[in-house]
Amino acid sequence: MPPLSELMMFALALAAAGVVSGVLAGLFGVGGGAILVPVFFQVFGLLGVDDAVRMHLSVGTSTAIIVPTSVRSFLLHYRRGVVDTALLRNWILAIPLGAILATVIAAYVSSETLRLIFAMIALAVALRMIFNRATWRLGRDLPKNPITWLVGVVIGVLSGLMGVGGGVLNNTFMTLYNRPIHEAIATSSGVGVLISIPGLFGYIWAGSGEPGLPPLSTGFVNWIAVALIIPVSLLVAPLGVRLAHAMDRRQLEAGFGIFMILIALRFLYSLYG
User: Fold this and answer.
1) What are phi and psi of 222, to 5 degrees?
2) What is the pLDDT of residue 48?
3) Which of 14, 41, 153, 206 has the maximum number of C-beta atoms within 10 A of its C-beta?
4) Helix H or strand E encompassing 251
5) Strand partners, 217
6) Are 263 and 35 in contact (CB under 8 A)?
7) Which is nearest to 164 in space by CA: 43, 38, 16?
8) Residues paired with residue 218 on neighbouring β-strands, in sequence order
9) Contact 95/66 with Cβ under 8 angstroms?
10) Which residues contact 146 (CB under 8 A, 6 or more apart)?
11) Close Cβ partners of 269 (under 8 Å, ≥ 6 residues apart)
């Protein structure tokens, strides 16, 4: 067990991550997992958590935290009237199905594979957002079913494997089909709700009985980290929402892209550095 001073530093680091994740939940329509997963990966490593379960624990714990932060962010955006509720109704089964499939996959893949998935998706989305042009469109409006429904399943799977709330992928999907970035961000908060709730139970199941997990963990969810971060995230989420509606489209896209590149590089370094 690390000294008390080190544990206090870890707790402060987690609390700081909670501030950033809460702001991001409102600002980019994500559950904050894009920053929480790498933070958890680092902190759990310093605490001596087995490498074989460290990434799984990071993703599962992040998913648990996304539940309240996404709900809070969704309600705030919904009150502003910019959420595409028709799209969310279309995905009410598709996205949870994808999230459950992600936890089944996670139960059988290695920590290195999870990190590589996270980094590759983050990098692809980042490049698209940074170099985005108005002419980069796949259509004037969202495609009809079954295409949109299948996209929902894919968003659920990939986001579930990353431990994020779906904003990373949904923002890209909606903007490619000519939807405003502010509407995409607002709708992504609802996507986070559809991913995180089934994902939470899935990661608890996937990690049940796994050796090497830290104290107060249920499957791949560590409740100490959850208890530290959720209150802070909920407190600062409204700040992110206000920032999102105050910034223009290009600022949001560029900021989101730069953020995701930094996260992708961090995980690639952990694999090949």
Assistant:
1) -100, 115
2) 82
3) 41
4) helix 249-272
5) 222
6) yes
7) 38
8) 221
9) no
10) none
11) none
C-alpha distance from residue 60 to each of 74, 116, 201 (Å)? 21, 16, 9
> Hey, what are 240's tokens?
């992110």
- Looking at residue 237, its amino acid is A
State how far the alpha carbon of 209 is from the alpha carbons of 201, 204, 212, in Å.
14, 10, 10
Contact predicate 45/57, CB 8 Å: no
Q: How far is CA 104 from CA 107, 204, 206, 211, in A?
A: 5, 11, 7, 18
Tens of pLDDT, residues 41-95: 877 887 788 888 999 999 999 999 888 878 888 898 898 888 999 999 999 999 9
Which pLDDT score, from 0 to 100, does residue 25 have?
64
String of DSSP letters for 87-135: HHHHTTTHHHHHHHHHHHHHTTS-HHHHHHHHHHHHHHHHHHHHT--TT
What angle, rounded to 10 degrees, do the helices at 249-272 and 4-27 form? 140
Q: Which residues contact 148 (CB under 8 A, 6 or more apart)?
A: 87, 90, 91, 142
User: Please, are residues 74 and 173 in contact by the beta-carbon 8 Å criterion?
Assistant: no
Residue 215's CB is within 10 A of a number of other CB atoms, namely: 8
**Shortest CA distance to 230 belongs to which of 14, 72, 65, 73?**
65
Q: What pLDDT is stored for residue 49 in this prediction?
A: 87
Exposure class string for 64-97: b at 16+ Cβ within 10 A, else e: bbbbbbbbbbbebbbeeebbbeebbebbeebbbb
Domain range summary for the chain, segments of one domain joined by +: 18-272
What are the C-alpha distances in Å from 158 to residues 54, 78, 221?
19, 25, 19
Q: Residue 219, class by beta-carbon neighbours within 10 Å (0-12 exposed, 13-18 middle, 19+ buried)? A: buried
User: What's residue 1's pLDDT?
Assistant: 54
| Residue carrying structure tokens 């509720």 | 85
